[in-house]
Amino acid sequence: MTAAEQELTRNREIREKSELTDAAQIVYLTPENAEFKETTGQMLAATVGGEVHPVVFLHCSFPHTNKRLYISIRTIENKEIGIIKSLDDFPNEIVRLLEKHIQLRYFAPEITKVSTIKEEYGYSYWDTQTTAGACRFTVQSGGSNVKMVSSQALLITDVDGNRFIIPHIDQLSDKEYRMVEMCM
Description:
Largest sheet: 5 strands, antiparallel
Strand content: 35-45%
Distance between the termini: 56 Å
Strand order of the largest sheet: 1-2-3-4-5
Number of helices: 3
Helix content: 10-25%
Radius of gyration: 22 Å
């Protein structure tokens, strides 16, 4: 290997290590370094370290078990700005604002009754009662569109990306369970 090739290899290794180091750096957001407010258009905006982000989105690390810990704050381009370790670190009015936006992002009505599920051509057509009222939706078969997210909770994602949850699958009637089981 020539000296020039060795230098190129060394520079590439340094660049790769630098990129990995940058990716591994996590910015934890606190009331001291981050501010949150709702825009006139009902979007969430953040100022972190003096940098204004006009629209941000909240991504929970544990959306099905704990929506209060390790919340990633991301730009519209999905670039992570930082992580909130716990909502409890923030004042009550900010907690209410962040919880509102978490609820909007992770809105998942609970299915209280499964009336029918019909399967045709790789899709299942659900007719249900939910905590948000009567709902009909379509789920693409296969993949992970109907999956257990805990020992009892079943998460269903329809073709439009809407999520529904059956919190206690063991509380379904035998008929409902058989219909749902065919889609799992």
